[in-house]
Each structure stands twice: as C-alpha cells, then as structure tokens.
Amino acid sequence: MNEQEELLTLLNRRISAVVELIKQKGADGLLIFNQANYRYLTNFTGEEAQLILTANGDRILLSDSRFAGQIKAQAPGELTVIMKQGDQDAEISRELKQANLHKVLVEGEFVSATEFSNLQALNPQLELELCQELVERVRNVKDELELATLRQAVQISMDSFNGILSMIKPGAIEREIGAKLDYLFKVNGGDGPGFETIIASGVRSSWAHGVASDKEIESGDLVVIDFGAFYHGYTADITRTVAVGQVDPELEQIYQIVHEAQRRGITAAVTGNHGADVDKAARDYINEQGYGQYFGHGIGHGIGLEIHELCQPALPFGKQELVNNMVHTVEPGIYLPNKGGVRIEDDILVHNQTPETLSTLPKDELIFL
After folding, report:
1. Mean pLDDT computed over 232-261
2. Among 173, 322, 326, 328, which is most buried by a count of CB atoms within 10 Å?
3. Is 144-368 in CATH node 3.50.50.60?
4. CA–CA separation, 321 vs 312, rounded Å?
5. Predicted local confidence at residue 1, as pLDDT
6. CATH entry, 3-139, from 1.10.10.10, 3.30.390.50, 3.40.350.10, 3.40.190.10
7. Percentage of the chain surpassing pLDDT 90?
8. What is the DSSP string of 19-50?
9. Would the pLDDT of 153 be above 90?
10. Where are the domains of the chain?
11. Residue 292: CB atoms within 10 Å
C-alpha cells in the first residue's frame, strides 16, 4: 500500500466515525465550517472552504479557484468539488438541495447567527440544527498518522528549544528569544509556531500567558517558556521554566512543588480515568503545600490540529474519559504575584495504564543558566 492509499484508508475511517455520529443524531448530513475539521476529513489544508458530509459518506467541498490545484494534489478519494463563484450561502444552499437532504447539522461554534439565519431563510424545506463539536469527538482519539506527526512536532519543538538556551542570560530581550525560537521551528523542519510563543521573565513569569515582550532578562529571574512547533498542521505544546543566576529560595521551592504535582498528574493520565482525576492528582498536592490559590487554571487540554482540543464547552477535559491514543497536556503552575511563577508542561499520550510523555526535555531539577 502506497502513501496515498494509506492516507485514503485513514480518511475513510474518520469519515465512517463521523457519519455514525450524524446518524445517531437522526440527521442526513453535517455542514462543516471549521478548517481543522474539513482538513481532517479531506486532507485539504486551504482556508475559506466548507464541507458537506452526508450520512451516506458523500463529501461535497466548496472552495474557490485559488485552491483548485491544491485540492487535486491533497485530497484523495471520491470528493465533489464546487468552485464558489458568488454568494456563499446561496451556493451552500444549492448543494444542500441537490444532495436531497432533510435534516442537516451545522457547526454552531463556527457559523455566525447572521449566516445561520440566512441559511434557514434560503432552505425552508430543510431542518437545520446547530451542533457542537461533532467531528472533534472523533479527532480526540489520534490515528497512527496523527501520532507520528505529533511526535515529529514535539521533536522539532525540543530541538528548537535547545537552540535558544544559550541566549537566555542577563540583558537578553524576551522578544528576541521568542523570535529566534519561532525561526528555529522552521529551520528544524516545522511550519512555524503553533501558537504565540510565551517568554515571560522575572515578575512577568507570574503571568500565565505572558507573551514575549521588550523586557530585558535580569539576573535572578525565572523565565517561563511556553512553545510548540506546527508540523503538517499538528502542534506540540511544551513549557519549561529556567533560572538566570540564583533566584529567590521560594521560587526554587515552588519549582519542586510544580514538578511533583506534574508527576502525579501524569501518573493519573490512564485509561478509565477522567481529566478531572488528572487535575485532582496535581491540584491536591499543590493545595497540600499551601499554594492552591496560586494555581488558577486547568491542568491541561488536548492537542492536535488545534492547540486547544478537549477543552471547549461541549467537550471539557475534566469530564472526558481518557482512552488510548488521546494526546493531552499536563501543565500545573504556581504564580506568585509580584514575585514570579513556574509552569511545567508536557504532551502525554494515553496508553493503557502507562502514560507516555512525548516531550522529554530535562525538568527534574530547575535549570540554572
């Protein structure tokens, strides 16, 4: 079996799984606006497209002439391609009618109220029903191609991180370090950053999402670096905290607390547990050490075609039962206002009772630079 045949086999499995969910909702089709979702079901990577997936497994992709060659090169299998010429809602409506559908699910998170109202007005013969995170339910469990791609995204991220460690010293500018890291993602074979790189030093390390600024790094700073490379559409998500010279003893102490909390969280990331069990394992330890009020965010989220999966309102990580081949982060942190913060984050593959940590950068001891 060649690569194209292998890809088509995987796509057909994904299509079948989503079709089953469409049928469970008593619908004839699903109208997809989310780029990650239509990419998952077609392998087409372009933007501004829509995909109609019917309960028979038929796929109708609406795009435009800019992407004709790209679709032909990327999207294997039987796929009806419509090149939009005019009003998008009218063209979607025409294809829905020609497909002879009666009840169609519409991705509620990715269609505006105005567009949904237009589609209803144009399709009085159809029952249109908003749905939440249907394709995402299938995407939560990665197939072999996705796992291989994620592993490569993680490796590129780690190689790139190692390439900027020598830059982290007094006088260095956060933004310059972040720019070099983003550059190395591409040099090392990736497609760029999967999200806005966080470089937060000193007091700013207590900001959970302190994106790189013009601040100079100073001796005695902790530096939180949250980063991940895109590779073939999939992103890693890793955080390490390092010290520049000697830091306040309490900051060293909270590093060890966060490290142990993460170890406990990873240990709990086993099949049959829920995300809430992972969170509890880490959070209980931080609470026991007296820092519970300084850990205000969730323990993690899924990763894949989007940086934040398994975390939306319809699929919160805490309520999800963990099954094999889910990939999610475990990222406890302690953030002391006006002093500094620590976060350690790794990408975890759920594998029976033995979670696999995909990201293997050193973390057992605080790294002093």
Report:
1. 97
2. 328
3. no
4. 15
5. 64
6. 3.40.350.10
7. 93
8. HHHHHHTT-SEEEE--HHHHHHHH----SS-E
9. yes
10. 3-139, 144-368
11. 14
